[in-house]
Specification:
The protein is mostly helical. 72% of the residues lie in helices and 0% in strands.
Length: 103
C-alpha cells in the first residue's frame, strides 16, 4: 500500500467535500444545523477512506504490512491510514468550524 498516494488522494477528495459543505452553509440559517454539518463532514472523511481503500483493493481490517515503519506493528491498515490522514481532516474540520462560528 502506497500510503503517500492514498493520503494525497484523500486530501483532494476531502477538500472537494469541504467546498460542498461550505456551499451548504450559505443556505442554512440555524446555528445548530450548521454545527451538524461538522458531523456530516466527519462521516464524509470516514466514507472516503473506505471508498478509496475499496478502489485500491485495500482491506482496512487486515494487519498492516510493516514496511520499515516504526510503531506500526500489530496495527490494521485502517489504523495506519487514520493515523496518517487525521491531520488533513483536523485542518479542514477546523476551517469548517471557523466558517460556522465566525461567518
Amino acid at each position: 500500500m502506497d500510503i503517500n498516494a492514498f493520503r494525497a488522494e484523500l486530501e483532494i477528495r476531502l477538500n472537494i467535500e469541504k467546498e460542498y459543505v461550505f456551499q451548504e452553509l450559505s443556505a442554512i440559517d440555524d446555528y445548530q444545523e450548521k454545527l451538524e454539518l461538522l458531523g456530516k463532514f466527519n462521516g464524509k472523511y470516514k466514507g472516503l477512506i473506505k471508498r478509496i481503500a475499496n478502489e485500491e483493493g485495500i482491506d482496512l481490517n487486515a494487519p498492516h504490512q510493516n514496511e520499515g515503519e516504526p510503531g506500526s506493528e500489530n496495527l490494521s491498515n485502517e489504523q495506519i491510514i487514520f493515523g496518517i490522514t487525521m491531520n488533513i481532516y483536523d485542518k479542514m474540520a477546523d476551517d469548517l468550524y471557523e466558517k460556522i462560528t465566525h461567518p
